[in-house]
Amino acid sequence: MRLISLELESKLREKGLWPQSWLAWAALYVLALDLLLFAVQWLTRRASPATSASLEGWVTFLSGLAIVLLAFVGFRWLRSQLLWRLRNRLIVTYVFIGVIPVFLLVMISLITLYLLAGQFASFVVTSDITTHLRSMEAANRAIAHHLETQISGGGKLDAEVLGRTRPRRPEWTRRQVCAWYRNQPQPVCSGPEGAAGFDSPSFITGDFRDLVRDHGTLYLRTATVLVAEPESLRVILSEPLDKEFVEKIAGDLGRIAVYGTESPAANSTAPPTQQNASKPYLTFENRPQREQTFSAGTIPPASGALDHEITFPIPLQVVDWATGERRRAGALAEVETRPSVLYARLFAALGDYAKGVEYILLSIAIVFAIIELLALFVGTKLTRSITSAVGQLYEATRHINRADFSHRITVRSSDQLATLANSFNSMTTSIEKLVQEQKEKQRLEGELAIAQEVQAQLYPKSITQLETLEVHGFCRPARTVSGDYYDFLALNSGKLMLAVGDISGKGISAALLMATIHSAVRAYSIEDRSVLRELTLREPATVGAAGGSGLVLASELRGTEASPAALLTLLNHQLYESTPAAKYATLFLGIYDGATRRFTYANGGHLPPILLSEDGSSQLLSCGGTVVGLFDNLSFPEATVQLRPGDVLVAYSDGVTEPENDYGEFGEERLIHLVRENRHLPLERITEIVTAAVADWIGDNEQPDDVTLVLARAR
Question: 686: domain range?
Fold first, then answer.
């Protein structure tokens, strides 16, 4: 079972469906608890209805909470899946920066155009009503002045006189005019048959022109009051706002529907004949919602695919005829028209030039559409160039992660991304070179380690100490391998050969030459009289510099053991023949005879060793010649000194005395002083003191050369 669960978890992790956050786990726990409670509720709905009812609230709450948490988790998962790729991120960014603002601007423009179109349609309707009212006002004023003239001439106000003042035009068949002279209670009226009269309210004290509601019906009314003390004349002209009137307005505009909220029964002062009469006047039903009373006109056909219907409500300002109260939305008219109709009404004054305006607007729209398409194309191309470059970099990093440093990105442009790709290619090239160099370095380090191990075997491990002489040697390479050389070689039970050398250069080449000299010294130090005899016959002259006490002549070498001078001569010839011209070595060779306490030495260009006597005096063993291996056919002088008990011989390389700091070189004087101060200590301890002093003198700087020190003390 555990294996199955682990396998399921592994598969879900591979598909990215395994919960990774506490929010996901919380959503799963809430969902599981919700399903558990739902199952319990379903199982107990018959056995225990009370328990089922009590669980219903928890199930509802947990369901809502689970939906919220799963919505958050789903949003995070969708965002991580959708926005992981840079291309998707750029697309989303472009949508938020480019598409959504354009969409909002288009929507704002369309809404603005819709509102402007609706306002224009409202203006057309209200302006037609206002124009009609002004026409009625002018006609009413003319009737009032005509009646005033007749009354002032001695006539009386009656229906016949009032009827003669009415124009004979068709629109007057729908109008009713009433007049009041002085304070007479009943008006004199003239109008269509069956039309009910109307009162003159107290708020009419002067000229009046407006849309009114009288007993639940809308009228267009104008009033003219002529005052000549003590007499007064009041004339009111009325026309119903009905379907016939609205039909004239809607004729070239569209469909107009009128809505109302009151009914004639709501007003108790309305006469029964008006409440029950069937007439085409506008009435309002007593409903809580506005219902259409009538509609006039038809919606014109569309002139194109974009010529959609426009529906816009028009609140009408109405005056209550009984009280004089003015209501801003006493009635409501709804206009249904099309943009083409409004456009024709708006540019009607331009005539044929309206087509030009239409073409200009269409051209601007086409130009804007082309610009938007170009912007979309350019944005898409730029997005693809960016995402492709990033995709190539991602693939390149995957190759680098697999240690494939030979992969290169193909560069086809000359922008900053191309420079980045070139930098990446340059980086991978450098890394590839570094890897190769590192491999080569590791190989060289391995070889150097082997060389160091081999060289360590060349230095003497166990030294045969003579009864009358103790020796000790030390070498600290400046690098992995050393170019300095020292050796102790017992010739027989009473003699010991001491060798100290310094090879030109450093590193492997110096170490190889050091090994060559080491082998040659050991080989030539064997008692080989034939070699010495051949050398003597080839060089009948003296081996050393002529003259001077202590020098050994070549004739003295016949029949004797190897001498330091003869060995240096042989080594010089061999190195000259077997090494490049620039390669040479300095070498000091000395043979100590324990029976006579005599130390015979020859020096090939090495630093002269120092001999410290028991009484504190010192002398340099300065007898010697030039370096070994640089010139052929050389002979080297040889000298002998007597070693008394307590004398200390110090042989060293330039790595001991030549290191510098701010105070200058370490120097021979400091070396002599250290050895003299500690001459009675063991030779190993003297070596430690000297090398530690040299290290302190160098300080934090790199060790410039190999440090080699050889000590011999007579006893």
Answer: 468-714
CA pair distance 550, 623, nearest whole angstrom: 10
| Three-state DSSP state, 578 | helix
Torsions phi, psi for 646 (to 5 deg):
95, -15
Q: What residue type is 487 in one-letter code?
A: D
φ/ψ of residue 285, rounded to 5: -85, 150
Pairing relation of β-strands 484-492 and 598-604? unpaired
Lowest average pLDDT, out of 159-168, 420-429, 579-588, 661-670, goes to 159-168
Q: Say whether 409 sits in a helix, a strand or coil.
A: coil
Q: pLDDT class for 686, splitting at 50, 70, 90?
A: very high
Q: In this structure, is the dihedral angle defined by the CA atoms of residues 267, 272, 273 and 277, taken in order, positive or negative?
A: positive
Contacting residues for 116 by C-beta, under 8 A, at least 6 apart: none
Cβ atoms 30, 69 nearer than 8 A: yes
Identify the domain boundary among 346, 363, 381.
Answer: 346
Q: Is residue 291 predicted with pLDDT exceeding 70?
A: no
- The DSSP bridge pattern shows strands 176-181 and 610-612 to be unpaired
What is the 3-class SS of 450-514, one letter each residue?
A: HHHHHHHHHCCCCCCCECCEEEEEEEECCCCCCCEEEEEEEEECCEEEEEEEEECCCCHHHHHHH
What is the CB neighbour count within 10 angstroms for residue 120? 18
Report the percent of the chain where pLDDT is more than 70: 86
Q: Kind and range of the H or E element at 211?
A: strand 208-214
Q: Are residues 521 and 653 in the same domain?
A: yes
The set of residues, in sequence order, having a beta carbon less than 8 Å from that of 130 and lying 6+ positions away, is none
pLDDT tens sequence across 457-493: 778 877 778 889 999 999 998 888 888 889 998 887 7
Cα angle, residue 691 at apex, residues 501 and 671 outer, rounded to 5°: 80
pTM of the model: 0.49
pLDDT tens-digit readout, 535-570: 444 444 333 333 333 333 333 333 445 789 989 998
Task: Give the torsion sign (CA, 336, 338, 343, 348).
Answer: negative
Confidence check: pLDDT of 281 > 70: no
Which pLDDT belongs to residue 444?
80
Q: Where a domain ends, among 55, 82, 109?
A: 82
Number of independent structural domains in the chain? 4
Q: Which two tokens stand for residue 144?
A: 């009032």
Examine the domain organization and report whether 316 and 209 are in the same domain: yes
3-class DSSP state of 291: strand
Q: Are residues 482 and 612 in the same domain?
A: yes
Pairing of strands 484-492, 495-503: antiparallel
Average pLDDT over residues 282-294: 51
CA distance 117 to 311: 9
Looking at per-residue confidence, does 153 or 655 come out higher?
655
For CA atoms 619, 624, 627, 628, give the dihedral sign.
Answer: negative
